[in-house]
């Protein structure tokens, strides 16, 4: 971040009565100053006052390590006589914009943190609601019928619509649509109104919000449901 430091003169005092460490004929002034810092976001001025001696002939600051005892004593005396100075701190327009942005971000994070448990509960409730299956529900899905349990050879696969006709304890009686398809993309939306009179008895294997699987007692028939008819 760009920062500039500027020395602001508070008072300048003639120090020609002191012997200059730079040269016997050189004269000096004692400059008492405050230090100001600036950036794009803030401006600050330290209330502390610093002394420095300036060679009047060259305008250069005399290094503190060259100061004589008389120079140190005179500088301290003038500092003690100087009234207390005020410091200041100011936020720029850009700084206010940044500050408001940061406050907004932290406010948003705080609100989200407070609301997170309630949102999580609501989300879990919505998932639990979507995972429930009720009589009369109609779903898009597929049915797999095996000749031998666990053996995919000779398995019959069909895609279509399925209706939950009846639920008794943990047994679901599901009827498939009269018109079924060999591929999922060939399932017709209008075929979700007519269903077989024969129901397939299955038990739930997996009941999730967006995917539900049922399997028959003998393990040869498996029905998977996805999209629910609105």
Task: Give me a quick take on this structure.
The chain is 23% helix and 37% strand. By secondary structure, it is of the alpha+beta class.
Keywords:
230 residues; alpha+beta; PH-domain like; 2 domains; 37% strand
Task: Give a verbal description of the structure.
- This protein is α+β, with helices and mostly antiparallel strands.
- It has two domains: 3-91, no CATH class; 138-228, PH-domain like (Roll).
- It contains two helices and eleven strands, in the order ββββαβαββββββ.
- The strands form two sheets. A six-stranded antiparallel barrel has the order 6-7-8-9-10-11. Strands 1, 2, 3, 4 and 5 form a five-stranded antiparallel sheet that branches.
- The radius of gyration is 43 Å and the shape is rod-shaped.
- 12% of the residues are buried.
- The mean pLDDT is 91.
What is the fold's blueprint, element by element?
Blueprint: E1 3-14, E2 28-39, E3 42-45, E4 50-55, H1 69-81, E5 88-91, H2 93-131, E6 138-145, E7 156-168, E8 171-176, E9 200-207, E10 212-215, E11 221-228
Antiparallel strand pairs: 1-2, 2-3, 2-4, 3-5, 6-7, 6-11, 7-8, 8-9, 9-10, 10-11
Task: Kindly provide the radius of gyration, computed on alpha-carbon positions and rounded to a whole number of angstroms.
Answer: 43 Å
Continuous helix count: 2
Order of helices and strands: EEEEHEHEEEEEE
Average pLDDT rating = 91
Helix content: 10-25%
Query: Looking at the structure, what is the overall shape?
Result: rod-shaped
Strand order of the largest sheet: 6-7-8-9-10-11
**Coarse structural class:** alpha+beta
CATH architecture call of the largest domain? Roll
Poorly predicted regions: none
Characterize the biggest β-sheet: 6 strands, antiparallel, barrel
Q: How many β-strands, per DSSP?
A: 11
């Amino acid at each position: 971040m760009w920062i500039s430091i500027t020395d602001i003169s508070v008072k300048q005092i003639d120090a020609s009565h002191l012997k200059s460490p730079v040269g016997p004929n050189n004269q000096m002034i004692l400059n008492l100053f405050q230090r100001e810092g600036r950036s794009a976001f803030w401006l600050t001025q330290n209330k502390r006052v610093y002394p420095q001696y300036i060679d009047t002939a060259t305008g250069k600051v005399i290094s503190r390590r060259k100061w004589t005892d008389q120079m140190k004593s005179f500088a301290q005396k003038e500092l003690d006589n100087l009234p207390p100075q005020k410091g200041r701190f100011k936020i720029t327009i850009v700084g206010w914009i940044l500050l408001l942005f940061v406050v907004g971000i932290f406010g948003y994070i705080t609100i989200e943190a407070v609301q997170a448990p309630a949102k999580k509960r609501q989300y879990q409730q919505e998932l639990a609601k979507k995972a429930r299956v009720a009589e009369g529900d109609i779903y898009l899905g597929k049915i797999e019928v095996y000749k031998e349990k666990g053996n995919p050879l000779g398995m019959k696969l069909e895609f279509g619509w399925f209706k939950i006709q009846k639920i008794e304890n943990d047994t679901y009686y599901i009827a498939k649509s009269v018109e079924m398809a060999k591929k999922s993309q060939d399932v017709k939306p209008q075929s979700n109104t007519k269903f077989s009179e024969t129901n397939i008895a299955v038990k739930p294997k997996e009941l999730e919000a967006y995917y539900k699987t049922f399997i028959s007692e003998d393990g040869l028939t498996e029905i998977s449901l996805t999209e629910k008819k609105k």
